[in-house]
Write a structure and sequence with these properties.
Length: 278
């Protein structure tokens, strides 16, 4: 798949994910709390600052930052119009008045050069067609001295919440093995690669940290519904499986999740690779 075809497909996928992300918003926000707290602490937003959140999804990370900038403002963005709608509804629910909502592609940010004081980007750069272009654009819109706080996902071994389903689908022949250089959940799991991309984008100071977190589910059915509702390209494959293959997938999933059973439910660990750069 060439880059332009990937961009079109990815856009359609994340438009389709917006309703599920809205349904699971509270669960996602709770699980991602350690990452959100790390990003905001490292960004250290000041009163009066203009912040930009890229790939905002339901907007929770940016909204928490917006509450800290006083008379400043947050530009909450996603390249999915439907996802921006999800964030707008959540921001309205929270009563936020200092947030602008925009449809923006991280590879081509429609803002003036040097127009924001800080950028937040959670779980997005590894999914774009050209992360180098996205990071260069991020550097461009930052004012001198501005910071970027980002997260991507660590290694598959440390993120069974995502890797188990992928492994089963590969083994069953429903998807090809992930290519290390192709867009995907684990594309930027290497600290070295992420740091190199930030360096080439013009960031002179970079610090990374592995941040652990956990995804909790009531039972196998709860986890399967979550996979189908929120996991992007993986969800689209699962939605297309015929029922007999869905049964096989469910049985294999149940077996693989035995080590993560806890108090009648499931407790799946994860690790985010977080970075702050300026």
């Amino acid at each position: 798949m060439d880059a332009e075809q990937y961009r079109r497909t990815s856009h359609n996928v994340w438009e389709a994910m917006a309703p599920g992300w809205e349904r699971w918003r509270a669960q996602l926000a709770n699980a991602l709390t350690p990452v959100r707290e790390w990003l905001i602490q490292e960004l250290a937003p000041r009163s009066g600052a203009t912040l930009l959140e890229l790939g905002a999804g339901t907007g929770e990370t940016g909204f928490e930052a917006a509450a800290r900038v006083g008379d400043g403002r947050l530009i909450s963005t996603d390249f999915s119009r439907d996802m921006v709608g999800v964030a707008r509804r959540r921001g309205t629910e929270l009563g936020l008045t200092n947030v602008d909502y925009r449809v923006i592609d991280v590879e081509s940010i429609e803002l003036h050069t040097g127009s924001v004081d800080g950028v937040l980007c959670q779980s997005t750069y590894m999914l774009v067609a050209d992360p180098a272009a996205a990071l260069a654009e991020t550097r461009r819109v930052l004012r001198p001295g501005g910071r970027l706080a980002l997260s991507v996902w660590g290694s598959p071994e440390r993120n069974p919440w995502a890797s188990i389903g992928v492994r089963i689908l590969v083994e069953r022949g429903h998807i090809p093995p992930p290519e290390p250089e192709a867009p995907g959940v684990f594309r930027l799991a290497s600290e070295g690669r992420t740091e190199a991309l930030l360096d080439r984008a013009g960031f002179g100071s970079v610090r990374t940290e592995q941040v652990p977190l956990r995804f909790a589910f009531c039972d196998l059915a709860d986890y399967e519904r979550w996979l189908i509702d929120v996991t992007g390209p993986l969800a689209m494959v699962l939605r297309r499986l015929p029922e007999d293959e869905r049964e096989v997938f469910r049985a294999r999933l149940k077996e693989a999740l035995v080590p993560f059973s806890a108090d009648g439910g499931l407790d799946l660990p994860g690790v985010a690779l977080c970075a702050v750069a300026s």
